[in-house]
Amino acid sequence: MRRPGLVATASLAVGALLGLGAAALFGAFNGAAPVGATGGLAGDSFPPSIYPQPASFPHWGDATGCASLKNVAPIDRRQARRRSLRVLSQWDRISEWRDRQLSDRAEWPVVTQNWKRQSGHGHVVRLRATDVVQGPARRSPYAGLVGHNCGAQILRRSWWVATCPGPWPVKPRCTLDTAPALTGHAMLLDRRGHWLVWFTYP
Fold first, then answer.
1. Are 99 and 115 in contact (CB under 8 A)?
2. How many CB atoms neighbour CB 53 within 10 A?
3. What pTM did the predictor assign?
4. Where are the domains of the chain?
5. Rounded distance, CA 149 to CA 151, Å?
6. Are strands 132-136 and 194-201 parallel, antiparallel or unpaired?
7. Residue 100 to residues 26, 42, 139, 155: CA-CA distances in angstroms?
8. How many angstroms separate the first and last alpha carbons of the chain?
């Protein structure tokens, strides 16, 4: 799952003149204030109020853990449709550090695995509503798995997005029957205005 390349490049150039870090600039893509620009994978860049420790790591054949319910807001569907696409337009595209900014700690083992296998695509895409299938997490094909292992509460407060294989825009409209083996699934949550990926498959 995964062009405003010129905008990003220009923003970085301006940021360099102003002494801003790349993290602070890319943070704007999520629609929330950047969580830090110290340039590391720990410390103030990932405050515990937004990135708390995972609730658990169940033995379910995947590196993903279960996200904590700490500071997780109830789902606002209108906001979820828009903000989830902003996050997934960058996901697995820019850097490991950026993916950590965009994800809950429960997903960090998967982020590490992904970036050991690839270098990313180097640019973001513009996902549109027609490029995905989305809705409350209970509609996900993995709702039963997640609910059983992580609990009904986190499932109720999660938003599900299925992304059909690119290139985008996808025509005709994205459906789960387009290429089921190549469709990526993600669950996101809203923690203090930061939309974070916490479950992905495959």
1. yes
2. 13
3. 0.77
4. 5-201
5. 6
6. unpaired
7. 12, 10, 26, 21
8. 10
